[in-house]
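Assemble and predict.
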Amino acid sequence: MPTADRPGPVVTRALRILAAFTPDRPSLTLSELSRQSGLPVSTVHRLVTELTAWGALERDPAGGYHIGLRLWEVGSLAPRGLGLREAALPYLEDLSQVTRENVQLAVREGTEVVFVERIAGSKAVPVLTRVGGRFALTATGVGLVLLAHAPADVLDQVLACPITRYTEHTLTTPYELRAALAATRARGYAVSDRQVTTDALSVAAPIHNAQGDVVAAVSLVVHHGTVSPHTLAPLLRTSARAISRALT
Amino acid sequence: MPTADRPGPVVTRALRILAAFTPDRPSLTLSELSRQSGLPVSTVHRLVTELTAWGALERDPAGGYHIGLRLWEVGSLAPRGLGLREAALPYLEDLSQVTRENVQLAVREGTEVVFVERIAGSKAVPVLTRVGGRFALTATGVGLVLLAHAPADVLDQVLACPITRYTEHTLTTPYELRAALAATRARGYAVSDRQVTTDALSVAAPIHNAQGDVVAAVSLVVHHGTVSPHTLAPLLRTSARAISRALT
């Protein structure tokens, strides 16, 4: 595989330019793109010109570049992105309207959670996530659901690396995590109680495809102490089943 | 610019592979990709391998390819896609909950409308649009708003090509269109009355950025005959102003 030392084929270099953009860096100049991608400015200039002509990048009034609408359009064809989200949205709306809390829909990508949809509740607890954003599998409710149903080697990879401690309640030892994952499988839902922030509790349930594989997870995130996770669990489990049915 | 006869640089060829995927063709085999992109199978194979390694494409169980979650994640950084949508969503939800009708958010890309968000009403009229989908500027309410506030050369380009007639009410002559666009600017909203389908009416209003430019449009699509457009107009105009304020 290409590395920073061996730049690799030209398409991979163009993809490295796209990967330089992040939620924290949505707009970049040519020299910032060069620094982030590790490619010479002359190469960046040539690739950016091609990407801009096609619409994958667009130019800011200030002279920087940002991701273009054309790439958003193509990306929206990802079955695990917008396809899943379109099928799930009516049920997420129902959860949002009934509870007025934060509703989240997520999938697993490698050893991370990717949030595909989030509906913020009107009086809900602040959450750290955003649509298209990533998070550790180990801390959030949706992450625990997705990790509980992932192939065994995914858990091995997660345990092989240091686990981020967000609060004093974050599970960080293999023993604690394996116990939480076993409980998640046995009960049919996961609970993350102040494991991401000290004021939030999330309850999450698995979404299955027609083959019975867990392909996504749905969660509610509420203020810690306002409601018991066991009260929320039936709500999440029935919503997850409704979404699973809509996928088949 | 590269054409089918002159394949052009390698990045442009890779982008042609991505552009082969459409809402009607979300999954393609190597030979279908070759046919759609006009590139030899050997070239397609090499580029698809690179795109898949990075996550821009993913492999189906059946052996075809579809757009990958990684490309969806990068695409979600487009300010005119997800950024706009995140700012607008609470107001779109309000419109949806109050009216129970179809709510749409759209931007202009060249001479077409691109739908950035759509919330389907529970008992609403069927609509032809989808998130990430395109439509003619001339037929829909959002299209008329965006065309009314586009640079003059955009209207020239639209009028230089045949205008699709969806129903007997679709505006197709330069005279009719110019009159509708002038009315849209004067009133502050557009009406598309059975101009897309014979049973739907849409009312749309412009969304402005901090510089006062029209950057998007919001609409309600209702059954024709159930409500007067003039009743809906204040609702759309205030919602559009609320979204405009959220963008600044």
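Chain A touches chain B through 54 residues (CB under 8 Å).
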